[in-house]
Write a structure and sequence with these properties.
There is one protein chain. The mean pLDDT is 78. It contains nine helices and five strands. It is elongated. With 220 residues, it is mostly helical.
Length: 220
């Protein structure tokens, strides 16, 4: 793995990136099919593709330019997982059902808002590889503190929220296991764990704005 490359702020960013890539693949041009470039958004991907074409002065074969999540989902099968993947509306309905079973933990007037907020939090915790099987609530609260990435948040401040999330997440995960289903975020992170097995020889990755990757992506 090569060291990160910093681009001076006074230089055109995508133009500089395009030149770096073309230089690295100079002996293979116009074939960039072994090159995979991960970018945080579609607009940047479109602009980089244009910059590569301008700098190369020829029609290029490849490369892949897009999000890491999209590439992983398209190129890595789920192994030893026969659970059906559910969509976002189904996730909401399942969590809503779990919330109703634990209505004593929250104000039911805000149940839909709570449902959406919890799904966002669950995805963040999964992305930061937070263990959900910790039996001790204090340990789990500390892990939640780490997942927030803010050590200034006291355990006392998090204890009530940790209890709520701890209870609801376990109920939700149990329900999905019993129904033999999983959500797209869980499936994505399972693919990340299996990714190394499915990377073809000579494949080269460029990750732009790597600071936007979550913990599981960074570890890969």
């Amino acid at each position: 793995m090569q060291a990160p490359v910093s681009i001076p702020s006074n230089q055109p960013f995508l133009q500089h990136v395009a030149r770096q890539i073309l230089q690295a693949f100079s002996s293979q041009l116009p074939d960039l099919s072994d090159c995979h470039i991960f970018l945080p958004n579609a607009q940047a991907a479109f602009q980089l593709r244009q910059a590569l074409g301008r700098e190369a002065g020829m029609t290029l074969v490849g490369p892949y330019i897009g999000s890491m999540r999209q590439w992983v989902n398209e190129n890595t099968p789920l192994v030893n997982n026969d659970r059906q993947q559910i969509n976002q509306p189904t996730r909401q309905l399942l969590l809503l059902e779990a919330l109703k079973k634990h209505s004593h933990l929250f104000n039911q007037l805000n149940i839909w808002l709570l449902c959406d907020s919890l799904l966002v939090l669950f995805d963040e915790l999964t992305s930061h590889k937070l263990a959900i099987d910790k039996p001790d609530l204090d340990d789990w609260t500390r892990l939640l503190q780490q997942a927030y990435g803010n050590e200034d948040i006291s355990l006392t401040q998090l204890s009530e929220e940790a209890c709520l999330v701890h209870t609801l997440w376990h109920a939700w995960q149990k329900q999905m296991l019993e129904m033999n289903i999983c959500d797209s975020n869980t499936a994505y992170h399972q693919r990340l764990q299996q990714l190394q097995t499915y990377i073809p020889v000579n494949t080269c990755f460029y990750i732009i704005c790597a600071e936007q990757l979550n913990s599981a992506e960074t570890e890969w």
